[in-house]
């Protein structure tokens, strides 16, 4: 795959993540209306995950060494898990309950992101050998 | 790392399926599936009419010996202008239900005078404390407990932490960062931050009921509620339920309708102002929104914002 094709793919991914971020902003606004003015920081700022972890990272990858499919999959799964956890945390915050199970999403999401980063570093080291 | 694309696709697909299934499970577990909790014994209350006055309380059993009960002082002027919706007078309790208008809302006030604070009882849905999705309407709990009056309280089972004492029994001792309120057997309310004490200390100092929700609306005669307390729910107009003390063994239970064109609801400062207007020297906010429910003598008094009564975890009630 040529560099320009890679670039196109990453720019396209950046826009997809941007659209997901916009959807999350909209979702929070609509949910707030039905929550009678009660909000949650987790839901309000969930859009930052795909924005920073998706759009910004995709654009950065144009400049950084190429990431393998495994790295991209792990990263995507991590972001998806964290976004799901944030939305659920927000729903429970607004409902007014404390749900320990939500922590699982943040732990799993974090592990996936760290794993992705480690695999990425290993790939770079192996490529440079 | 070289991967078989087909195998990778299957693994990734499996992950998203598992994520979906786990998310669905968490939602069902929290909102639908009843689980957990333990049965709480009902207190045995015996009322005997006699010319002598006195109250004895031991463990989970209460015996009340009564004489004629007289309304202390005068009715607050704000209630004199209201509509009387019902009343119940016995040797041990005087209850008058008023409807007044405040903060662009219909407000329902139960003016309650009791001989003995132990007359004010609490019940859990299906007599179960600590579970999730174990709920009943206030009406159902009131009928099951032969109540004359009932109101929703703090939905204690909804939280994993926070002091809970009900009918003289400690049910949960883990503290939260909330302020709690104690109804003491001497007929007075006291509020405190849970981190400053223990449930055993509170019980030893004479607590009969302890609720953990808040915030405190009035403390020592001064309104302390603020819409800037960091909780969104306190800053916006909503249906509200509150509990306050006018004097020893003299209490006000309040429900504010909300979320309709007729009744806008109240924010936490407006609720405190209502309690001040009722002459309360101590007052506390209970669970509001769709949970706000006042029931009296077989009739739902307020208009729950969801159109019908929401099922809740617990209530405060007074037996016939």
Describe the structure.
The complex is a heterodimer of chains A (129) and B (320). Chain A has 129 residues and is mainly α. In chain A, 82% of the residues lie in helices and 0% in strands. Chain A contains five helices and no strands. Chain A has helices at residues 3-34, 41-44, 48-63, 69-95, 102-128. In chain A, helix 4 (69-95) packs antiparallel against helix 5. The model of chain A has no long low-confidence stretch (mean pLDDT 91). With 320 residues, chain B is of the alpha+beta class. In chain B, 18% of the residues lie in helices and 39% in strands. In chain B, the strands form six sheets. An eight-stranded antiparallel sheet of chain B has the order 5-6-7-19-18-20-16-17. In chain B, strands 8-23-10-21-22 form a five-stranded antiparallel sheet, with helices on one face. The longest helix of chain B has 27 residues, at 5-31. The radius of gyration of chain B is 22 Å and the shape is globular. Mean pLDDT of chain B is 91; it is low at 48-59. The chains are: A mainly alpha (129), B alpha+beta (320). The A-B interface holds A 36-39, 68-70, 73, 77, 80-81, 84, 88, 91-92, 95-102, 104, 119, 123 and B 1, 3, 5, 8, 12, 15-16, 19, 22-23, 26-27, 29-31, 158-161, 232-233, 235-238, 259, 289.
Give the helices and strands, then pairings.
The complex is a heterodimer of chains A (129) and B (320).
Chain A: H1 3-34, H2 41-44, H3 48-63, H4 69-95, H5 102-128
Helix pairs in contact in A: 1-3, 3-4, 4-5
Chain B: H1 5-31, E1 35-39, E2 44-49, E3 54-58, E4 61-66, H2 77-80, E5 83-89, E6 93-102, E7 105-114, E8 120-124, E9 128-132, H3 138-144, E10 147-152, E11 164-166, E12 169-172, E13 179-184, E14 189-193, H4 199-204, E15 207-212, E16 216-219, E17 222-223, H5 232-235, E18 240-247, E19 250-256, H6 268-277, E20 282-286, E21 294-296, E22 299-300, E23 314-319
Parallel strand pairs in B: 2-4
Antiparallel strand pairs in B: 1-9, 3-4, 5-6, 6-7, 7-19, 8-23, 10-21, 10-23, 11-12, 13-14, 13-15, 16-17, 16-20, 18-19, 18-20, 21-22
